[in-house]
């Protein structure tokens, strides 16, 4: 019998630290050939570019595949299955496949896809790892406005549905084999333990809850779980049934109802940023003023040969330089803005242009 290639699904809400976790995994892979499938939300492939620019010897560019045509759980037939087939048909097949879903993807339909005839005998879901933003979860920020939801529930006894953000969060927890409470250093020991305990109370038996700072988890812990999640779908059922699939028909024209229209994303192009501290301060103000959930991208800084990666979740903005601009690459700044439906794109673009001095 041919041994199946293990695949790990890494899921989690916007800005939880999935890409950081994967970068750490690659840096400590000790020669293991890991192929990556990155499902970007928005028009600028930031996560894939960050990983391609990681400078890690065994992180070859052809080992990173980006699926940017939409949410991975809605494009299984046209994107995900063909991509998996290409990876496992390579002359030098990977030792392990890691799939980073977008922050808006539900993991259950993706795990279900591993039962498709084209791949079920060759690949297995080693485990589903859900990365949780510890500080955001402690503050209830997986939902847009928890207080408003609570007021609605108090006013209407018949209201029993949750906001789209909390539905995504609950489904990601329900599917997980391992929860990583990331950014534990910001919470402190007591805060991280409190978040971990509250999450554990929601989980099915046997799900591990670990704490991490900057995604630093030993790959030996993340990989090799041996779960076979595709054979265990009943235990990780969707709490909110957003997808309606006929198990006997894998047509890609199924109706999908998990509320992706609740989110908008767009790209803002800017010139080089001459005064970065002031720019980041004004970006923080723009995020706060316009209810932006997530901002990420790359910036060019005069006099710096390397591009700067910018990743923001709420008021927290992280930056680092990842790689040098190539000779044929335009030195410019491009940012993806993500938020709930109804973002004032013109106002946000104007605020970012003013912040950049454009």
Could you characterize what this model shows?
- The strands form 2 sheets. This protein has a 7-stranded parallel β-sheet with strand order 3-2-4-1-5-6-7, with helices on both faces.
- It has 11 helices and 12 strands.
- It is an alpha/beta fold and 358 residues long.
- The protein has 2 domains: 5-236, 3-Layer(aba) Sandwich (Rossmann fold), CATH 3.40.50; 262-356, CobW-like, C-terminal domain (Hypothetical Protein Yjia, Chain: A,domain 2, 2-Layer Sandwich), CATH 3.30.1220.10.
- It has helices at 18-27, 46-52, 76-88, 107-113, 134-138, 146-155, 164-175, 184-200, 219-222, 276-290, 345-356; strands spanning 5-12, 34-39, 64-67, 96-100, 123-133, 178-182, 208-211, 263-270, 294-299, 306-313, 316-324, 333-340.
- A hairpin with a 2-residue loop joins strand 10 (306-313) and strand 11 (316-324).
Going across the major beta sheet, what is the strand order?
Answer: 3-2-4-1-5-6-7
CATH architecture label name of the largest domain: 3-Layer(aba) Sandwich
SSE ordering: EHEHEHEHEHHHEHEHEHEEEEH
Total strand segments: 12
Output the CATH homologous superfamily of the largest domain. P-loop containing nucleotide triphosphate hydrolases
Mind telling me the CATH class of the largest domain?
Alpha Beta
Low-pLDDT runs of 5+ residues are: 143-153, 155-163, 243-261
Biggest sheet, in brief?
A: 7 strands, parallel
Estimate the global geometry from the Cα principal axes: globular
Briefly note the structural class of the backbone: alpha/beta
Give the tally of structural domains. Answer: 2
Radius of gyration, rounded?
A: 20 Å
Helix content: 25-40%
Query: What is the number of helices?
Result: 11
Mean pLDDT: 77
Distance between the termini: 61 Å
What is the percentage of strand-forming residues? 15-25%
CATH topology grouping of the largest domain: Rossmann fold
């Amino acid at each position: 019998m041919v041994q199946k290639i293990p695949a790990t699904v890494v899921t989690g809400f916007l800005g939880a630290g999935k890409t950081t976790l994967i970068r750490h995994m690659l840096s400590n892979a000790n020669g293991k050939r890991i192929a990556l499938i990155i499902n970007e939300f928005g028009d600028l492939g930031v996560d894939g570019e960050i990983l391609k620019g990681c400078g890690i010897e065994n992180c070859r560019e052809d080992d990173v595949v980006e699926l940017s045509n939409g949410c991975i759980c809605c494009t299984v037939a046209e994107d995900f299955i063909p991509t998996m087939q290409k990876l496992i048909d390579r002359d030098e097949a990977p030792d392990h496949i890691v799939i980073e879903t977008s922050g808006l993807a539900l993991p259950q339909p993706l795990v279900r896809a591993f039962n498709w005839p084209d791949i079920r005998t060759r690949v297995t879901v080693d485990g589903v790892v859900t990365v949780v933003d510890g500080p955001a979860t402690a503050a209830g920020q997986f939902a847009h406005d928890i207080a408003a939801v609570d007021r609605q529930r108090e006013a209407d006894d018949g209201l029993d549905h949750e906001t789209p953000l909390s539905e995504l969060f609950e489904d990601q927890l329900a599917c997980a084999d391992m929860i990583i409470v990331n950014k534990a250093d910001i919470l402190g020991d007591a805060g991280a333990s409190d978040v971990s305990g509250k999450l554990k109370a929601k989980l099915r038996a046997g799900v591990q809850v670990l704490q991490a700072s900057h995604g630093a988890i030993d790959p030996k812990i993340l990989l090799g779980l041996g779960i076979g999640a595709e054979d265990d779908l009943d235990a990780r059922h969707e709490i909110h049934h957003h997808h309606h699939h006929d198990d006997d028909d894998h047509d890609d024209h199924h109706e999908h109802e998990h509320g992706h229209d609740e989110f908008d994303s767009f790209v803002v192009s800017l010139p080089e940023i001459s005064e970065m501290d002031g720019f980041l301060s004004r970006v923080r103000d723009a995020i706060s003023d316009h209810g932006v959930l997530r901002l990420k991208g790359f910036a060019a800084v005069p006099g710096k040969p390397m591009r700067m990666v910018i990743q923001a979740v709420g008021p927290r903005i992280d930056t680092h330089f990842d790689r040098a601009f190539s000779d044929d690459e335009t030195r410019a700044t491009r940012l993806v803005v993500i938020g709930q439906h109804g973002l004032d794109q013109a106002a946000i673009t104007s605020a970012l242009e003013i912040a950049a001095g454009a």
